[in-house]
Structures are given as C-alpha cells and as structure tokens.
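User: We ran a pulldown and think these components assemble together. Before we commit to crystallization trials, I'd like a predicted model of the whole complex to look at. Sequences follow.
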Amino acid sequence: MRESNIMKIHYITGISAIILVAIHIMFRLIMPYGASLEYENVIANYKNLPYTIVLELVLVTVAIHGFNGLRIILIELRQGRVWEKSMTWLCIIGAASIIAYGTRTIILASLTGEV
Amino acid sequence: MSVNLKILRYSPKEGKRYDTFEVPYQRWTTVLDALLYVKAYVDHSLALRYSCRMASCGSCGMLINGKPRLACYTKISELNSNEIICEPLPNFPIIRDLATNFDRFFTNHKNMMPYIINEKTDRKMDDIHREFIQKPDEVEKYLQFSYCIKCGLCYAACPTTAMDKEFPGPQALAQMYRYMIDSRDQASRKRLEIIDNRHGIWRCHFAGSCSNVCPKGVDPALGIQLLRSYLLGFSKKGEEKAVLYISSH
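Assistant: Here's a predicted model for the assembly, 364 residues in total across the polymer chains.
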C-alpha cells in the first residue's frame, strides 16, 4: 500500500477517534458522573446498541491510529529492510490482536453481561 | 576588539578536539573572515570550505554558536558573544575540521529529478528557438523555492534527517515542489511517486527548523506541506500549461 494511502487512513482514524471519544465521554452525562461509572451501569451500557457501536469504533480507530503511529516511530528509529518489514507486521498483528480481544470483550459483555 | 574563536577540529586519526584562537575583529568582520584570519596567520592546517564570500555559493555552512548558518553571512558583532563556537554541520559526515561530505545530500537532490520534464522540448541543436511563456502568477508559485543555493543548512537543522538517514531532507523535498508546481513540467505524477514511500515526505514532523535557518528566505516546510496536500488530494495541479513559443532565427 502506498504511504499516502496509509497516512490518509492515519489522519481519518485520528480525527474520527477524537470525535468518537468525545461522544463516548458524553455518554457519561446522561446520569451523574459518579453513578455512570458504577459496575451495574457500566455493564448496562454494553446492552445499549448505539453505545457498543461507538465503543467498537473507538477501539478500531484508536488501535489503527496508535499502532500506525508506533510503526512510524519504529521505522524512524532504525532503517533496514528486515527491521522495517518486521516492525510493520508486528504493528499489524498488534492492532489486529487488540481489536480482536476488545471486540470479544464488547460482544461478551453485550450478550451475557459478563467480561 | 577581539573575540575567542572556538573551533571543532577533527581528523580521522586524531578524533575530535576544540581549539581556541583569539581573533581581532571590526564591526563588519564575518565569521568566515575570522576563520580565514586563523588559517592565514595562526594555523594553516584548519580545513573549511568556502568560495564566493557573499551567500551565493552555499559552501561555508557550519554550526555557529549552535545554529546552522553561513559563515560569510554571519557577522561576529551580530552574535553578541565573546566566544564563537564553530562546528561542522550536523547530519553530514565530517571529512576534516569544518569540511563535511555532501554526497548523500546531492544524491537526494538528484533523485528528485531537479529539471523540467516536457515532451515538447528536445535538446537537438537546430535553427528553431523554443521558449515557454509563463504568466507571473505561474512563476510566483515556485519562485522562492528556486532561490535555494544548496548550502545544506536546512538538512543540518532537520530533526527527521538526524534520525532517518533515508529521509531525503527538506532541501530535496522543497526542490521537488519547485519542479512539480512549474507549469512547464509534465511529470507531476512521476515526481510524487518518488517521495510517496516509507522514508519519503510523510516522515516530516513539521518542526519548521529548515525554514528557520534558510539564509535565502526559502520556506522548505511550506513546500513540504503543499506537496502533502497534492498527495492527499486536497490540491490538484492546474490544467493551465505554459505556452510554447517557437521562432526561427
């Protein structure tokens, strides 16, 4: 993939993450802040479909943006074909693992109310 | 009046050391004048590169009191210091003393194809005189970038170049913009492909130090950001092309 396309994804996920995290935080405002962080209320949020969709989008955008940022830092630290390929794959696997584990947690909490 | 000139000396055998010389100066004395005084009257072995003494050739770039500057364009009096520290440009391999190796820098410059590419012109010598006519606003787009004298100060100041040795550097990228935006040039897409890679234009952190140190008023950071806007699709090169004017002698 061209670096310009990767950077387009990087910028889009970065801007999206800011908006989605803002929406995610605003979910706290529907009840007193302290109450919104109580266990029952947090689990109840997972039963709310719009909330879980926003949470999943936050997870995907932050993981992609964060791991691509890490990839950029790593290939600037050291150069070389083997290092760059290894770091690129390491970041892809890292992002995929985080997304997979986070998605599993969201689905489990949404369906069973347990994580 | 006199000033202490502290010069970083380097040779592959002896390594690095600082030598200090007391040099007399006038209000108009430049750092290059002071270095040449040392070379002429104190230590003939001092190695430095210089040529025009008027900020046109870009040969005498060095780190003066921690900032990349042209020695011929920096007056001692403007530094407001009793001690002037001269060191070779960072991000360049040192050959000896203040002389640095520009091979990679010029290779990066050449990789940007710093010339007009246009099928309508050829290099055959014939009786036909060919000339492209450009409007003032077309010239305005690249004019400031054509003032680059390839002194390497921007390259020395760039934090990305310090880390990533495959990054082409602000000078090369600014020259890329200079030719890409030229209405006579037809190779925009090919040019953009050259810099659209892992160590290309995207590694610029927009620190802006390149523009800060340029002695000719070029703004490489601006060129880099404008190039990015073309790669991201925010800008498109205008359809308007320079007019080819042909006349017989």
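Chain A has one domain: 3-112. That may be worth checking against your pulldown data before setting up trials.

User: Thanks, that helps.
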